[in-house]
Structure formats: C-alpha cells, structure tokens
Fold this sequence. Notes:
This protein is α/β, with parallel strands linked by helices and 488 residues long. Helices cover 44% and strands 14% of the residues.
Amino acid sequence: MNTPHTIHTLGQLKASGYQPKSIKDEIQSNLVQVLREGKHPFQGIFGYENSVIPAIERGLLAAHDLLLLGLRGQAKTRLARQMVGLLDEYIPVIEGSELNEDPMHPLLEASKTRIAELGDDLPISWVHRSERFFEKLATPDTSVADLIGDIDPIKAANNKLSFSDERAIHFGMIPRAHRCIFVINELPDLQPRLQVSLFNILQEGDIQIRGFQKRLELDLQFVFTANPEDYTNRGSIVTPLKDRIGSQIHTHYPKDVTTALKITAQETSDVQQRFPAVNVNTLANTLIEEIAFVARESAYIDAKSGVSARMTISAFETLLTSAERRRLILGAESTDVRLSDFYGCVPAIVGKVELVYEGEQEGAVSVAEALLGEALKKVYESAFPKFRNLKRTDEHNPFLALQEWFSTGGSIELLDEFSSNEYENALDIAPLNEFVEKHSTVTSVPSVFLKEMVLWALSEYNQINRVRTALSTDFNDVFGNLLGRDRD
C-alpha cells in the first residue's frame, strides 16, 4: 500500500489495495505481530508482567472491551493510553467527516451522498493513531448529550431541517470517537441511566437521541476503569452493562520493594535531574518505598481506599527538596540525604492516605511519623542486627556499649541545618562508630547515614529517647530523660 502522503482520493485508496477492518481487528493483528517479535506492547509499567499485562493481551486478542478494576494509583489509565501503540499508524477517513468515517464504509447519509456524487474523486485525509484516543472522566454532571449527542435546534433551524433528520444531530463524544479507543474513568460514578445508554452501543452499535433512533455501526475499543471502593460505596456498575464488557481485569500495587523502586525511579527521573547536587543512598530509597508497604498494612489507614504510588513519588520529591533547601542555605556544592530530611516528607504522606476513625484520633501527622518509624525498623533490620529481647545486663548485647554511653549522660543534637562537617562531628561517637563498623552489612551507604539510622532504630525500639523540635532531632537516654523531668 502507498504511503498516506500519496493517497488523496477514494480512487487512489481503492487502487492501493486498502481493506477496511474494525479497530478490534486492527489491535488484534498488531498485537499478534508484537508478540511474535518477542516485544512488549506496554512499556514502563512494572510489576504487571505476569499478571495484569497478560490478562489485557488475552482480552484484546479476544476483541473484548475491558474493565480495569483497581485502587487508585495502579496505572489503569496509563495502560489504556499505551494501547494507542497497538493501532495502525494512520487510517484513512472521509475528508471533513466529524465521525472519522472510513471512505469504504460510510455511516452518515450525507457521506453516502457525497460518495455517490463524487465517486472515486472523493477526497480523503489521514488520521494518526495519536489522535485516536478519547478519555472521559465519569462525573455526576455528565449527560447523555455529552456521551451520545442531542438534537441541535439551532442547526435544524439554520438549515431548515426536521428534528428527525440526522443532520440536526449534534453528536457526543462516543460517536466522534468512531474507530478510536474510548476510555471512561471511574465508571461507577456514571449515573445508571447513562450506563444504560451504553448498552446498544456496546452490543448493537445504534444510538437513540430523544426518541430519534439512528443506526450507526460505531466501531470503538472501550476501556473502563473503576475503583473497588467507588464500586461499592459511591455507585455501582449496572449488571447488564457489566455483562456486555468482555474482560474484567484486576490491577494491584507492587508486590515487592524492588518493583516499587523501579516505579518511583521512573516517575521521579525529571525531578532528580533538577537536583543533581543531592545524593540519595539506596537505604533512603528503600525507606521511601517501605513507608507505602507499611501504610497498606496499617490499622490507621483505610485499606479500601488504598495507598497510591503517588505517595512514594511525592515523598521522594520532598525528600530531595528538603536536602536541596539545606544545601542552598549553607551554600554547599552538594549534600547527602539525611534521616532528619524524612520529616520533610510528612506533608506528602498525610495528603495521600485516608485515615480510619482511630487514625483521625491519633492525628494525621502522628500517623505519618509512626509509619516512618515502622518502615525504618524494616530497613534497619536489613542492614544491622535485630533487637530480640536484649537486656542491658546481657554481655552478648551488641548495643550495650552504646546504651551505656547514653545512660551515663551522653546526648546527641542534630540540627537540620548542620553543615556536612557539623553533622559528621555530632555523630562521631566512639561506641556508635564501632557498632556501625562491626555490624553493618552494607557498603554503598555513607557511614554517617548508617549511624543516624542506628540512633533512630534504638529510639523506635524504646532503648533511647528521640525528641523532634522545630529545628533539630535530639537523642538522649530514655530513663535519664524521665528522671530529669521528675526533678523539674
């Protein structure tokens, strides 16, 4: 077949050997070719390689419309948008058609009349696949006119048309998406009467507008998305509509930290490039992801609402900017992320989780800091000895020297705006240095970060006291602190 640039009329299109095919056949044939070549049709989507993506491919091969069902932040819309890559690069349309009509298969009487008058001289144009994606968020104010269309009295009056004339119709988004991928996000939010209006389009391909029935053999690849919480609480998908959707596919959050790290790294690549002077070590990256995993299991977080990957993305971005702010204030050439910088992530965390009643009672900030603490314990135990019923009198207690240092009056104050030298000097404590050197199992992380992590872990396990002020993080002996308060 000739290139689109050399085909401008219906006669040239016929001579090229072009054969019309439906969008589902188009997607199917292109997907078959991609799979035969050992390629992947969905790029940059991690964790779905053996679950969601194979299910989508099976649905598309079966020419199904799809329902992607999952919690927020599970790449449902991104999956739908990448299906555009399975379309032909260009398709021919009747020039001037508002419905992307195939020149060999017109829908409207006006187009059929033009073909009868012009024959092989009918002008055609070409539509790129990037223009064949339509998306609609289901909102309470969505109307049948928005989706299907309505009689346009002004058009009828100006052209002296009867309301029964199809030329008086102003077509909605779905007819205008003929031969395209059409996505309806948050389907349960669509009013039941609007869901009913989709029945015939999905099954028979005709539309009804104010009692006027016009059979249009619409050709679309529908993709619907829904959140299970919305499905049960705010609305529902009416059974006859669900029955007409070929495949219902459940999405999910990353099942391991390695996958979650890939997602966050991909989504934050731009912001990392904007702050090249900030160095983030592997344990800090892992800690960001563990916060999300801990949150999804927390009794304070509404599990039905979910914890989006957007939380870790936002938290990572604020971690970078916390360190960058300090670097700018100090006028340093570069800086390393510190554990105290994670306090800057709290606003990003509280804005991305839904609390249950108990969480509301605790307070959003307290819950976020508790999540940070639980996540830190998991990361700490991947690099250091675990706490297991250790007593200060136990000679085999690896923390004994450090605990004794604090119990004899030792304390550490870490100001947020310490320079690198001040930060290192504050943590230059002999028993702390010896502990990290002897017990750390990681080598790629700055020792000063590891030392701060040990202090945080000791405080999380109630071995020492950690006090957060507006300007610093202070560590001291938990019993000495209590005695000091009693004396006061």
